[in-house]
Model the fold of this input.
Amino acid sequence: MAFAVTDACIRCKFTDCVSVCPVDCFYEGENMLVIHPDECIDCGVCEPECPADAIHADTEPGMAQWVAFNAKYAALWPNIAQAVAAPDDARGFVGVDGKMQFFSENPARQPA
Ligand code: SF4
Ligand code: F3S
Done:
């Protein structure tokens, strides 16, 4: 079992999650973070820390696709072990729907 980051993180990227993870299993893309499913120890500490409610357990409905997404990009992106400043307009992206669609339609800004 593991926790995974969903598209709710896109353009929010607050990195509060990074500050609390005891095993530093977050990986950083341009617009969002992901969790390495094999490194996550399932402690659950990060889930309530995310202001965008972007982190959920893989046992929740609909999370299988996000575990696969997290696994894919954790293998490609660099590790992030310390929180960084969120984007200036991060608050404006909390709760916005269709983030994946937006980024897939703007290839230069894809989370990948
Ligand atoms: Fe890190 Fe725990 Fe969150 Fe997994 S559940 S990413 S180990 S803080
Ligand atoms: Fe993203 Fe939430 Fe972490 S917005 S960077 S999952 S605190």
The first strand starts at residue 3 and ends at 5. The two ends are 24 Å apart (CA to CA). The chain is about 20% helix and 10% strand.
